[in-house]
């Protein structure tokens, strides 16, 4: 199967903006592009309104769902143009079009949905299905094994229009979300403590470090259960392999934190896991 071209993602994004759907590009690992230098570690202070999509003053797709746009001029602007050549998917903000997505990640989750939820429009994903419902609610990850809810302050990959008729989301979905931790945007905070350099550098080429960070991001994104434990173990592995020589930068750490927050971890949990991993390793 031929890999879709960059133009494919851009064409998809423009078609969605034409329909009033707020979109953003995703990079490898199905995560948003990291903060630009001006906004790194929330240096911009999170000044714009975080309650609705498309409200960030930064012209780049720099703040996940909150940077999503319905303006084709923004999607094709010089600020967004560098993102499309390395984009791996197009995402959209479900609440921005009045939708809630029930993300079913495997066969068992789909079986549960078919016996517990009313039929609605479905979209096939890599490993499961997205069930789309009319209505907006708060987002929550891990409400059941393999089940996430994406609506406000969240994004979902766009994988096609799907099949079936949209129905209003049922009380069973809302009840699941009410029992789960909310997905919240990261507040402005100081960056986590960085490792102290001076150790022997084992990064024979920059590719070694880059591959290690990319693999760590993917491990966190792919986790469906025991998210807290997975984040901690991943941070521990990264620090053990890459953390003693000083090559690990704030940008690398921000990528790991972004992946963890995409799985519903709070900034506090990320910082605690990072600090605990450093303590375990005596850093």
In words, what does this structure look like?
The protein is an alpha+beta fold. It is built from eight helices and ten strands. It has helices at residues 6-18, 72-75, 107-116, 171-178, 206-222, 227-242, 250-262, 267-280; strands spanning 23-27, 31-32, 89-92, 99-104, 121-124, 129-134, 140-144, 147-150, 156-157, 167-168. The strands form two sheets. Strands 4, 5, 6, 7, 8 and 10 form a six-stranded mixed sheet that branches. A four-stranded antiparallel sheet has the order 2-1-3-9. α5 (206-222) packs antiparallel against α6, α5 (206-222) runs parallel beside α7 (250-262) and α6 packs across α8 (267-280). The N and C termini lie far apart (46 Å). Residues 1-5, 46-54 and 182-190 have low confidence and may be disordered.
List keywords for this structure.
about 35% helix, globular, four-stranded antiparallel beta sheet, disordered N terminus, about 280 residues, alpha+beta, single chain, six-stranded mixed beta sheet
How is the topology of this model organized?
Elements (H helix, E strand, L loop, with lengths): L5 H13 L4 E5 L3 E2 L39 H4 L13 E4 L6 E6 L2 H10 L4 E4 L4 E6 L5 E5 L2 E4 L5 E2 L9 E2 L2 H8 L27 H17 L4 H16 L7 H13 L4 H14 L3
Parallel strand pairs: 6-10
Antiparallel strand pairs: 1-2, 1-3, 3-9, 4-6, 4-8, 5-6, 7-8
């Amino acid at each position: 199967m031929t890999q879709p071209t960059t133009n494919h993602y851009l064409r998809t994004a423009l078609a969605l903006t034409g329909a009033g759907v707020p979109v953003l590009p995703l990079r490898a690992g199905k995560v948003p592009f990291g903060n630009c230098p001006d906004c790194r570690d929330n240096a911009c202070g999170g000044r714009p309104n975080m309650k609705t999509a498309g409200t960030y003053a930064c012209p780049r797709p720099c703040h996940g769902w909150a940077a999503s746009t319905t303006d084709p001029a923004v999607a094709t602007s010089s600020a967004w143009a560098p993102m499309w050549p390395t984009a791996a998917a197009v995402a959209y903000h479900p609440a921005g079009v009045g939708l809630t997505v029930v993300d079913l990640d495997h066969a068992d989750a789909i079986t549960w949905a078919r016996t517990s939820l009313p039929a609605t429009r479905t979209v096939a994903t890599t490993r499961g299905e997205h069930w789309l419902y009319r209505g907006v609610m708060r987002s929550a990850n891990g409400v059941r094994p393999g089940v996430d809810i994406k609506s406000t302050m969240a994004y979902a990959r766009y994988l096609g229009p799907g099949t079936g008729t949209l129905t209003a989301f049922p009380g069973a979905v809302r009840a699941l979300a009410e029992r789960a931790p909310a997905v919240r945007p990261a507040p402005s905070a100081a960056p986590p403590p960085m490792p102290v350099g001076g150790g022997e550098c084992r990064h024979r080429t920059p590719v070694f470090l880059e591959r290690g960070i990319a693999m760590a991001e993917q491990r966190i994104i792919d986790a469906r259960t025991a998210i807290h434990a997975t984040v901690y173990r991943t941070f521990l592995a990264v620090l053990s392999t890459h953390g003693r020589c000083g090559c690990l930068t704030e940008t690398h750490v921000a990528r790991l934190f972004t992946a963890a927050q995409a799985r519903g971890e709070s900034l506090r949990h990320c910082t605690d896991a990072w600090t605990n991993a450093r303590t375990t390793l005596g850093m």
